[in-house]
Amino acid sequence: MKVTTKGQVTIPRHIRKFLGISAYSEVDFDIRDDEVVLLKIPEGGSKESSEGRFARLRGLKKGGLSTEKWMEATRGE
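Below the sequence we write its predicted structure tokens.
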């Protein structure tokens, strides 16, 4: 399977059938350990969780450089 220049891929038919995905279905992606998981959003469902869309990503980059040091490093200061 190849990724287009727009970052798109075709979801194989057997996967679409298994998940019940059709045209205009809502889907989302989740990162679990070292895998990316495709999730079908139920009709009338919401992409947003009760704690917010990016809440599960908070704290992934713990430790290391402070924001100030990170900005200095990325700016080449």
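The helical segments are 13-19, 67-75.
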